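Entry: CHAT domain-containing protein
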Amino acid sequence: GYLVLEDDLSLKTTFVPGTDIAKALIREDGHRIPLVMLSACQSAAGSIEKGFHNVTRDLLEHGFPNIIAMTMSVLDNHATQFARALYDQLHQEKSILYAFHEAIRYLKKFELTIIQQSFGANTAAISPFQYTIPRLYARTQDFRLFDAQATPEKARMESCAYIFKQSKYHQKIPEFVFI
């Protein structure tokens, strides 16, 4: 599978294979983040001809334990509201599974509010059942984002910004520093 990325200025699109995304997310020591959130449309969709291969499957095959992805096209506003509700729950130290279900509940209420506000108005703007699009895929039964009881470790400062050109990730850019 692949994600289609669009340059904000030129509007050119780049097809990035899911395997490249997975490799870019794996730390040098082999650590994989406990949750990958793909809000891109159809990031969990696949075709029968390709054996339902998609970015989500690529990430699962590379050992990422929990992936949230979209099974179909999703409205931007709904994807944003879902992510906001999900991250709000994770910020409150809820499990990934609990946060996912709460975000779905929130999205359902959000959608109902839009439908009620639009009653009698332009119903073409209503796209029901958006809350059925996000899916949680897991390779584990450990849905903790982090261990709240663990001893905090000092953050390592390292550059991890890459340039994607000519279908390849190129060297790190020293002026970008991420934790």
